[in-house]
Amino acid sequence: MLQFTKFVTIRAVLAVLTLVLVSFIVFSLMELVPGDCAERYVAFKNSQGAVITPADIQIERVRLGLDQPYVQRWGSWILNAFQGEFGDSCILRVNIAQLLGQKFWLSLGLCLSALILAYAIAIPVGILAATSKNAALNNTLRLVSYLGLALPNFLLALMIMLFSTIMFGDSLTGLFSKEFRDAAWSYDKFKDFLGHAWLPVFILGWSATAFAIQTVRALMSDEVGKLYVTAAEARGVSGGRLLMRYPARHALSPIINSLGFDLNRIFNELPIVALILTLTEAGSLLIEALARSNDQQLAGAIIFMLTAAIVGINFITDIILALTDPRIRRSIVG
Amino acid sequence: MSELTDTASARQKQKEAYFTASQGQLIWQRFKKNKSALVGAWVLIILILSGIFAPFLTPYDPTIAGRDKDYLNGAPQIPIFWDENGFSARPFVYTQERTRSIKTNFRWVTEVKTGLEDRRYITFFSEGSPYTYFDFNINLPGEALDFRIPGIEFNTHLFGVDKGMIHIFGTDSTGKDIYSRTLTAIKTSMAVGTIGVMIAFVLALIIGGVAGYYGGMIDAVAQMVTDTVKTIPSIPLFMALAAFIPDTWSAESRFFFISMVLGLIGWTTLARRIRTHLLSERNQEYVLAAQLCGAPPKHIIRRHLLPSFTSYIIVDLVISFPYMILSETALSFIGLGLKDPVNSLGVMLQNVTSADVLLNYQWYFIPVIFFIVLVLAFVFVGDGLRDAADPYSDSK
User: Fold this and answer.
1) DSSP reduced 3-state for B82
2) pTM, whole model, 2 decimals?
3) How is residue A185 annotated by DSSP?
4) First and final CA of chain B: distance in angstroms?
5) Residues A106-126: pLDDT tens digits?
6) CA distance B261 to chain A (A)
7) From the DSSP assignment, how many helices (H) and strands (E) are in chain B?
8) How far is Cα A133 from Cα A129, in angstroms, rounded to an integer?
């Protein structure tokens, strides 16, 4: 038990350290954007008719604390960030945490569902592909997983939109129907949400599935030929029981470990898919912030939260792995 | 008797050839056996060549200078050999004219003229718009970095028509020839990928090399940094970096900056592989043997360590190439990447999003096919090379 606590503590410290480093990168990126908040506010006031002098900009800078040294501002940004507080967006002049709010959780939910979908398909199919000797099946699967890589998600989304517009006259975009867009969460709204969310989940899951099938197949075919499997077979275990109890258990534990990076890959695709399907969640806000309004506070907050989610998942998978596999616990603590 | 010794000696020779073959020869032998990778390699070579010789292979300038103002949003024109007016040994297309009159309710309508005198015959090696090779015109921000080398100018194109213009893939909304644009886009995307991969490679070699060579504390710090960069989703990070480009930059500076951004983020996987490889190879017996023979470290690195993983690095570079192209496409697609007049596959894909295009101008999708084929070819070749470079792939 003591050993396990030690393991969890080390992992937690590492995760926080990673987040601090990430926050430094993100914060530096935000600082690199030409123009700061003071200039933006003042420019806004200017557009409202007030006459502005350079001294006003300086006063505004002091008010916002922008005259303090870089490291100090980074420190206060990160301290607030860990409490889920990202300040105001100086373009939209609203609180970022309020703006993002449930949109971020929607995005996370979409990505996690895509991840679950990917592995729900990939694990049985991958095991089948690794153990079957059927050349036609293997070649088909290979082609499909290559296509998953070569056909970017945004193209797939476009094609599905084209198809459904021609066939059903509905472009299948958005996350909510009109009447539910601003309504509070209720059972009906949830049902409506599910009716819209399946498409982005499917599109996000598409390349993730292709990728996962390849991973599962490779891991599984490494394990299937090993002696302990033959030994188990000699003892009379066979069929699905043999596969699930012996090679699959070994083959699948590295997958748990890589879940964080799979989520990373899905997050990658989210903004562009969101743009095409006009989803109203954090991914499209990110594009909005970066490509249109150059809103560095909002963009930084979204990237930081996405990364924090990935670090969190990595931390959880590490703990799960350590719970199930004593070898890992020992290897880290030493 | 002599027959037997003949086959035996032939087999002996074969064995000898196998044992004395260089690593490159062995890889090539294994690669040749993989049919899908070989097909992919051919497709890739054809695409790369058509990208390099795009100005010659295409009839018109891909920028606004080469537009056909009489044929906007025009459908592809397929050359034919005969119609009701008779057969022609030289393929031809019809003249299409945009007209607006009381008959068409004063809307612009494209009218196909199928008369004998309206045939446009295809000519080969025709003279057309000039283009240059070996022409460097670097225009980076800052005066000191500008320089220009005038190249050699050509104006021969593989094909053209005797009058008017021909658009075998159709035209876009401003009348630019989609065929010319597609081939040029392949060239641009390959160039972005190459620069990106090169920058990533140099970074990976330095960071991975230092971490793997020194090990210990330096390695731990390098791993921490690599892991952190890997944790941040790369497309949002690309987007954040690309968002800095001021609007005032020229298209060329944009191009170089985007390629650099791709390289600056794409190095992590490669760096980790180089580091792992160096760490494991350093403790191999053949290195120990060389050390015991008194070989200096320089000799060991150059003659033993480097050859042991050059093939892996080449394979990794090929594998990371399609990711670079995909990332560039994604960036350009959302409008943060390359912009007109620089013409990449992502810029071309940008045009296919509107419903108007989806329903009425499906030929805008032709570049998409090229894009998918290009990425697929890269993936097939990369996978084939990976299998071929693995010395144990035969025994599996």
Assistant:
1) strand
2) 0.80
3) P
4) 37
5) 888 888 999 999 999 888 888
6) 13
7) 15, 7
8) 8
